[in-house]
Amino acid sequence: MVEISTSILSVKKGEENKTIFALEAAKTDYFHIDVMDGQFVEKNTYDKMFEYSSYIKRISNLPLDVHLMVEDVKKAIDDFLAVEPNIITFHLEACKDKQEVYELIKYIKENNCKVGLAIKPNTKIEDIYEFLPYIHMCLVMTVEPGKGGQTLIPATIKKIKQLKKYIEENNIEIDIEADGGINLATVDDVKGAGANILVAGTAILMAKDYKVIIDELKKE
Question: How far is CA 164 from the centre of its chain?
């Protein structure tokens, strides 16, 4: 069963309320919170995403899927734990060594939150293997992190396939989330490769009817 995590990055100011309720009615499974610090990636959405996620927490019971694209991971974890997310995902590339990765995984879990680990398109999928038994989700970026509305990079589909094969062979229970350029043209490839949580923003928010798109993306 495929789940949809709708990125709220491009929700228009002043339309938050209307959009959140419409997405809830359209049966999105998560709200995807793209937290960027202007350092790890070019764009800075930090304060806006904190504001939006605090707002969602007040008006909706749907889970928050927080994706940290930041250099100071520990500080961002502390900040966003305040909105009681379902899961916090941080980037492997933001950590200086393996020890830091393990410490952050442990820290998030100790705060009663699920943990995800993300990798950029150029990072080898093998680099994440040793952490898989300790996390709940692996997020494969299918575009370069930091901008909305990009085109999916075809080589990332192979990475998802490889990850899925490794997980099955090693009997690891974990979600695979794909994020970037996911729309009606690319969704079948992504699902076919083995991703079971799909992040979509532009494709859903640009649509006249959110439910039609979400239903199509979820279609088996």
Answer: 17
